[in-house]
Amino acid sequence: xxxxxxxxxxxxxxxxxxLDELLRAGHSVVTSVxxxxxxxxxxxxxxxxxxxxxxxxxxxxxxxxxxxxxxxKSEPPFETVIHASSPFHFNVTDTKKDLLDPAIIGTTSLLxxxxxxxxxxxxxxxxxxxxSISDSRKGTRPGYTYTExxxxxxxxxxxxxxxxxxxxxxxxxxEKAAWEFVEKEKPNFTLSTMCPPIVLGPIVHYIQNLENLxxxxxxxxxxxxxxxxxxxxxTIIYVWVDVRDLALAHVRxxxxxxxxxxxxxxxxxxxxxxxxxxxxxxNFPELKDKVPAKGVKGGEYPKDxxxxxxxxxxxxxxxxxxxxxxxxxxxAVKSLQAVAA
Length: 341
Fold this sequence. Notes:
Elements lengths: L2 E5 L5 H12 L3 E6 L2 H9 L9 E5 L21 E4 L11 H23 L5 E5 L17 E2 L9 H4 L3 H23 L4 E5 L3 E3 L14 H10 L14 E4 H13 L6 E3 L4 E2 L2 H11 L24 E2 L2 H7 L6 H16 L1
Parallel strand pairs: 1-2, 1-4, 2-3, 4-5, 5-7, 6-12, 7-10, 8-9
Antiparallel strand pairs: 9-11
Helix pairs in contact: 1-7, 3-5, 6-8, 6-10, 8-10
């Protein structure tokens, strides 16, 4: 039974799905949480899973140097680490403290702890982002194809100009720091990074209301609850992935020798907010009074087109067969309705 350490397995939208996928794949999982209450919530939501297959440790602040030094020690020892704990929100007052430090220090302190105290770990998988690939300065780049070879050229000075820039920089700098660590320190483990764009799909993490929803799915909630009734917001990022496919990609990267020391641009393809509205309108007639009418302003693709994408590595190496947008949105709406009920 593979033994895996997972960060962010409590409140994280992506991490919660990774946790379930690890358990389905037969892994024994220890996940980090910020409090005993959040850890107990995870256990309570998996009542049939015994403690030897699912447990938690408390890491109150991943941005603290040495935060993982003790918790990474385990008996039996860990073989795999999946780092899915990194902030994705724009409610910040201090970009460095709220976004950059948790992402960069959280990543490097974990890698240092693994090298120092967990020599049994052979594979590390990190959740990065399309934000570390794309160059927002160049806009929608019609005709250009983004691949794993691309890197966001954002600078430290630009990172402090807005919360959005801070988020993009946090993902770029933290992923680069991880690759630099592996190159310079030459640890016992290999590294794989997952670079998803907008992540949609059903929620399984344990939120109490739609106010605590993850940033990516907020656009779905806004469309289905009437907040975008008169005008759809701009899509901004035009590529997406279902959270279940992304979770599976993490687990397969942890298990695949071919995935070692590779980046993966994990995307199902293009989408727009207009398409999301169309899917909700067509499949949830009970929401027709809240969903924007067909043809309402906003949410469309740019007239000149958008960048292309190359997801062949994810398909070929990890064997991911991506879900379609309709399935993802329908399942997401159903899960959000359950929370709102």
